Amino acid sequence: MLVDVEARVIRNTRLSSDYNVIALAAPDIAAATAPGQFVMVKSGRGRDPLLRRPFSVFEVLWSNGRVDGLSLLSKRVGVTTGMLFDSVEGDTVSCLGPLGQPFAVVDPPAEAWMVAGGVGLAPFATLGDALVARKTTTTLFYGARSGAELFYLDWFTARGIRLVLATEDGSIGDRGRITVPLERELRRAASAEVMVYACGPEPMLEAVARVAATFKRQSQVSVERVMGCGMGGCYSCVIPVRDAHAAQHAGSERTRPPHHYVRSCIAGPVFRGEDLVWD
Amino acid sequence: MTDLSVQIGSLRLRNPLIAASGCFGYGVEYAEAVDLSTLGGVAVKGLFLKEREGHPPERIVETPSGMLNAIGLQGIGVHRFIREKLPELRRLRATVIVNICGSTLDEYVELARILSDAEGVAALELNISCPNIKEGGITFGCSLHGTFDVVSAVRKVTSLPVVPKLTPNVADVASFAKASEDAGADGVSLVNTFLAMAIDVDTRRPILSNIVGGLSGPAIRPIAVRMVYECRRAVKIPVIGMGGIASASDALEFIIAGATAVQVGTANFVDPFIWAKLLDGLNDYMRRHNLERISDLVGTIDTSARDKQWISS
Predict the structure, then answer these.
(1) CB contacts < 8 Å between A and B, how many?
(2) Interface of A with B in 59-98 (CB under 8 A)
(3) Do A210 and A108 share a domain, yes or no?
(4) Can you spell out the DSSP letters for chain A?
(5) Could you tell me which residues come within 8 angstroms of residue A210 by beta carbon, excluding any fewer than 6 positions away?
(6) Does this model's pTM top 0.90?
(7) Does residue A126 fall inside a structural domain?
């Protein structure tokens, strides 16, 4: 069920000079959220910003055995994320959701490999919980600019989720892109049944989808496009998807296969990696 | 009991609130947020005869109290609409206003013919004002002859109410309302978006892939109110007003300026639950002002104490 609530800020935890996790009293949305779904957020009552912004639900929060809210992982880049960063307990944030198509959660014997880049960690707490609940062996591949921007590592290890890390400065884990260790491990795990999940910058998603396909694994990627409404009303957040009859079209590196635009808010934000056509 | 119903040609709307074309998908997308049967009407996303891809992203950008869009009329085409969306809209008891777009006069006529035979279409809104596609109806909408010709041609082939949607990107929008009336339109709707642009100063590139786009949202409301006021003075047919309406008070401003009904677009993006709030606000106003029929409020702006010389007559 779709809910719009003026959610009270339960707490706002700054993780760094631009990352924060904001906990919102939106229990009805939280209880209805499936991993990979998102909310449209409006911070402040005025007209700057006018439009809502999309955020993956980060955590579903429990208290005394009941869902009492949700949290968002945010990186300060614009007006809305700046307001979320500066929010204090007791402020309200308008929160509309849950929206979008969730991840398909795999069961054993399949393994789940979640690949996160930067703030793209956001959908993997709820997905990780869902996978662990199904006893699916789960790995988080997590890349960031530096070790100081790798967050919630203990949260994942406490749930038995294996971590593989990479940083651009090499301060923790592999130096460079997270797709480097992903490719290495896929090469090693030739016989394992693996579902690859990814969220992060689009070049990373493209690389992950390509690496997964190279090793004959399925992938599910969560995209973020400039979104006006989150409901399918405005047609701004479209992403090119392969035409069905061209699903097997190999395509060259240079020519885009036949495609059409779909609204990432209602057809996504989660897509099968092989369905997307990259810009 | 207040009466919010209004009349557009032969069409009776249960209230003056219409979801604006291009801002509400095909209506069915919003069924989870709003009971479509409680709206005066649902103007669905502009339809061509054929499917259209639209422009590549970026398609929108936020601006002060508004947004620019250049979607490029992505759409499923009239045949898929009738097959895939109209049955659901009928089931939801929506009053469906179909917004139609063509590259040629013949396409408008063809669309009007097809939709006149479809079950569950209440009215046709002629999109002759989309600023974002060069082959579209804007060439009709920016010429008085073009506007007259397309309205007359559609008028001849349909008994459905015909409402051309006018562009504000002309010197005198009232003359376009008059041309529409002369051609047999049952009403006019205005305004479509204002042609505008936004630039990324770091890259020196336009933000929208189409370079230019249409400005909507609260930023344009005062201009739109003025244009509705001018059109009300120029024609006798109903005027459907729109442009930045985000509250009942905004809607009332248009109605008092002369709008028989209003459309709400951008505000629906921000708050898909806005419709009940707008209805409550209208009802509350009617009670406070001891009004029985909202149609009695249309065009009741009192300019008696003002100098009216500024406006050409």
Answers:
(1) 91
(2) 96
(3) yes
(4) --EEEEEEEEEEEE-SSSEEEEEE--HHHHHHPPTT-EEEEEESSSSSS-S-EEEE--EEEEETTEEEEEEEEEE--SHHHHHHHH--TT-EEEEEEEESBPPPPP-TTSEEEEEEEGGGGTTHHHHHHHHHHTT--EEEEEEESSGGG---HHHHHHTT-EEEEEETT-SSSEES-THHHHHHHHHH-TTS-EEEEEES-HHHHHHHHHHHHHTT-EEEEE-----S-SSSSS--SEEEEE-GGGTT----SSSPPSEEEEETTTT-BEEEGGGB---
(5) none
(6) yes
(7) yes
pLDDT > 70: what percent of chain B?
Answer: 96
Residues of B catalogued as catalytic: 130
- ipTM for the complex shown: 0.93
CATH code of the domain covering residue B138: 3.20.20.70
Contacts of A4 in chain B (CB under 8 A): 271-273
A109/chain B closest Cα distance in angstroms: 37
Task: Summarize pLDDT for A110-158 with one digit per residue, the tens.
Answer: 999 999 999 999 999 999 999 999 999 999 999 999 999 999 999 999 9
Instruction: Measure CB to CB from residue B57 to each of A2, A42, A226 and give the nearest one.
Output: A226
The number of folded domains in chain A is 3
